[in-house]
């Protein structure tokens, strides 16, 4: 487009930085000028537009004070455009929670400092609620009656704890894991070993029947065997051990430490 018009017309020179402006004349509306500044969050542009409306109102009042009595000043284009932007930036009252105002959903009448603090707090609140751990240790029998403890017995260490059980009673995995051993083991009779990871294993001995296979994954509470009197045993029961990094530990203390108190 040429900078020269019809014969006799004055040449139009445009600003290099802002080509939509012409010297001596503003052809873009105030809305077009302010829109880029209002592209942020609603809270920011509401504050900007509010300040602009307040400034425009003061100018309008000063202009009205200097006019003869009875004459009403015509609102300028700037005031009209800013008022329109303020209306667009406002949040409808029916979209706000009951008792809240436009300023960050803070109850009406709150001090400015309280409004800012409430808005910041609302932004930092997490929608995630804390919950208890879903995986828990479980009893290995339906009914727990302790008949023998961990420690020295008959000149040797008894590496587990014995629970009274009738032959055929279901025996359950105390915690999720992979079946490491499922078969006969001298002294233990029919033995199930479950690897729970992190160096922790549990032993279930003297079973009359095994109902899982090596390599099988079991969850806590899944049946793995039936109690019995196999191996070196003097009556039907469930012998239970806990091993950490290959070494047997006192089972009842360990279970208590992970949230399962059987005593």
TrEMBL record:
<feature type="region of interest" description="Disordered">
    <location>
        <begin position="1"/>
        <end position="28"/>
    </location>
</feature>
<dbReference type="GO" id="GO:0016787">
    <property type="term" value="F:hydrolase activity"/>
</dbReference>
<dbReference type="InterPro" id="IPR011055">
    <property type="entry name" value="Dup_hybrid_motif"/>
</dbReference>
<dbReference type="InterPro" id="IPR050570">
    <property type="entry name" value="Cell_wall_metabolism_enzyme"/>
</dbReference>
<feature type="compositionally biased region" description="Low complexity">
    <location>
        <begin position="98"/>
        <end position="120"/>
    </location>
</feature>
<feature type="region of interest" description="Disordered">
    <location>
        <begin position="95"/>
        <end position="123"/>
    </location>
</feature>
<protein>
    <submittedName>
        <fullName>M23 family metallopeptidase</fullName>
        <ecNumber>3.4.24.-</ecNumber>
    </submittedName>
</protein>
<keyword id="KW-0378">Hydrolase</keyword>
<feature type="domain" description="M23ase beta-sheet core">
    <location>
        <begin position="157"/>
        <end position="251"/>
    </location>
</feature>
<feature type="compositionally biased region" description="Basic residues">
    <location>
        <begin position="12"/>
        <end position="26"/>
    </location>
</feature>
<dbReference type="Pfam" id="PF01551">
    <property type="entry name" value="Peptidase_M23"/>
</dbReference>
<dbReference type="InterPro" id="IPR016047">
    <property type="entry name" value="M23ase_b-sheet_dom"/>
</dbReference>
């Amino acid at each position: 487009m040429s900078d020269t018009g019809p014969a006799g017309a004055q040449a139009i020179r445009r600003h290099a930085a802002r080509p939509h402006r012409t010297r001596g004349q503003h052809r873009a509306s105030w809305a077009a000028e302010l829109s880029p500044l209002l592209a942020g969050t609603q809270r920011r542009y509401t504050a900007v537009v509010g300040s602009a409306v307040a400034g425009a109102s003061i100018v309008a009042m000063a202009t009205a004070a200097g006019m003869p009595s009875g004459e009403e000043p015509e609102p300028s284009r700037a005031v009209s455009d800013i008022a329109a932007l303020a209306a667009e930036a406002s949040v409808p009252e029916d979209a706000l929670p009951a008792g809240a105002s436009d300023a960050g959903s803070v109850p009406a009448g709150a001090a400015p400092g309280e409004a800012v603090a409430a808005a910041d707090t609302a932004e930092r609140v997490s929608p995630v609620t804390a919950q208890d751990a879903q995986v828990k240790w479980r009893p290995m029998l339906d009914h727990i009656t302790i008949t023998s403890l961990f420690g020295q017995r008959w000149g040797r260490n008894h590496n587990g704890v014995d629970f009274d059980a009738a032959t055929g009673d279901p025996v359950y995995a105390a915690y999720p894991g992979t079946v490491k051993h499922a078969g006969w083991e001298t002294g233990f009779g029919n033995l199930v070993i479950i690897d729970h990871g992190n160096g922790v294993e549990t032993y279930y001995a003297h079973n009359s029947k095994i109902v899982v296979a090596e390599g099988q994954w079991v969850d806590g509470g899944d049946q793995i065997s039936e109690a019995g009197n196999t191996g070196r045993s003097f009556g039907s029961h469930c012998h239970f051990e806990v091993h950490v990094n290959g070494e047997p530990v006192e089972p009842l203390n360990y279970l208590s430490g992970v949230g399962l108190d059987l005593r």
